[in-house]
Design goal:
about 425 residues, mainly alpha, about 75% helix, DctM, TRAP_DctM
Length: about 425
């Protein structure tokens, strides 16, 4: 009955068109009434305490870094570098998209920011070259999914805080899985593009490639600085977010000189608005998380999954399927915040490595960004690329299936994640 009250109140509020943050508060209040614990003071304390977390400072700073990179020219130079390296081969613009997406993922950690930048820069080029616009848009949307996986990742930060798991270990463990997802997109694009009649850009000379690399060098140094700093213990993930924002601002304003005072004000306003939405959502979810713990919902979920507890792979498959279904109807951040306090006791009871689970959980939620009908990244690509939602959805299907295939391969063979992870953070 407790599970029914919580889930029923949440779904009813969402069905009424209430924003997800307020829907979470409504479900929390309903659960408080059911448990005879209603107290406005407790509600307010948990709401304020939910956002009062030092590690969560990484969220607004990474969002600020992403805004600066897109406006300050770092994203464009990354794309130009990828274009110079692989743009001349058949289907080269698709490989440029994947390569640039992986590099941008190591800069901003935001799927929406990466997808918007790639759509604006590459979709017109791919269309002019003769690629099917729906397929090109689908590839860009699927590439944007890599953003929350390859560190630095806002999703991993939120999961780390909600699950009390080392964010540094999550960052280092997600590097290889993110690259594997990029490899799956590469192979899928190569298969799909082989019959297309396209005109690739001319091959760049060695001098032009070196020039593109020189221009992109400052942008390419950022992920190196962050990952080496985390690995060597120079700074925490929260401090890494500040380093990313300050470094991006310095490069954009002093070296590339593409940011003016007027642009800087607009950048801060955009980052503040996005951060406010996410932080209020986190605060509202923490109210529900506290009530989930008080109502002992995790033990009830453990009881439901008891038949799978003796088989870690089967349990992970069941959890991944559940997250896939939730991801079709809910955005990434609320899914993380709602399911993490419910699933982590199950994971711990089954003896599954929480870092491994966290990476798999974020990968699944990331792919949920391109699964209709919600598909936040699909909406971004459709809006920026002036395409219909149906066309983008049709184009993304083969790439989405490839990503799910890689995800379940990592479920069946956990060492694909745990092996490289132990190498990076040992």
């Amino acid at each position: 009955m407790t599970i029914f009250v919580f889930v029923g109140a949440l779904l009813l509020a969402m069905a009424m068109g209430i924003p997800i943050a307020f829907s979470l508060l409504a479900s929390g209040v309903a659960l408080m009434w059911h448990l005879d614990l209603f107290d406005p003071q407790i509600l307010a304390q948990n709401l304020i305490g939910g956002a009062d977390s030092f590690p969560l400072l990484a969220v607004p700073f990474f969002m600020l870094a992403g805004e600066i990179m897109n406006v300050g020219g770092l994203s464009r130079r990354i794309v130009d570098f990828a274009l110079a390296v692989v743009g001349h081969v058949k289907g080269g613009l698709g490989y440029v998209t994947i390569m640039a997406g992986c590099l941008l993922s190591a800069l901003s950690g935001s799927a929406v920011a990466d997808a918007a930048a790639l759509t604006a820069l590459l979709l017109p080029m791919m269309t002019r070259a003769g690629h099917d616009k729906a397929r090109a848009g689908g590839l860009i949307a699927a590439t944007g999914v890599i953003g929350p996986v390859i560190p630095p990742s806002i999703g991993l930060v939120i999961f780390g805080v909600a699950a009390n798991v080392s964010i540094s270990k999550l960052f280092l463990a997600a590097i290889v899985p993110g690259l594997l997802i990029g490899g799956a997109l590469w192979v899928t694009w190569a298969y799909l593009v082989r019959k297309e009649k396209i005109v690739p850009p001319p091959r760049k000379s060695g001098a032009e490639i070196l020039q593109a690399a020189r221009k992109a060098l400052w942008a390419l140094l950022l992920p190196v600085i962050i990952l080496v700093g985390l690995r060597m213990g120079v700074f925490t993930p929260t401090e890494a977010a500040v380093v990313a924002a300050v470094y991006a601002l310095f490069v954009s304003a002093v070296i590339y000189r593409e940011i003016t005072w007027a642009k800087l004000y607009a950048i801060f306003v955009a980052a503040a608005k996005t951060s406010a939405i996410v932080m209020f959502l986190i605060a509202a979810a923490m109210v529900s998380a506290w009530l989930i713990t008080v109502a002992d919902l995790p033990s009830k979920v453990v009881a439901l999954l008891q038949p799978y507890m003796d088989n870690k792979i089967l349990l992970m498959v069941a959890i991944m399927v559940l997250v896939m279904l939730v991801g079709t109807a809910m955005d990434m951040t609320p899914t993380i915040l709602i399911l993490t306090p419910v699933l982590m006791p199950v994971v711990n009871a089954a003896g599954i490595d929480p870092v491994y689970f966290g990476v798999m959980f974020i990968i699944n939620n990331s792919i949920g960004l391109v699964t209709p009908p919600v598909g936040t990244v699909l909406n971004v690509v459709a809006g920026v690329g002036k395409m219909s939602m149906d066309d983008v959805t049709r184009g993304v299907v083969p790439f989405m299936l490839a990503q799910f295939a890689i995800m379940f391969a990592m479920v069946i063979f956990p060492w694909l994640v745990t092996g490289p992870a132990k190498f990076f953070y040992r």
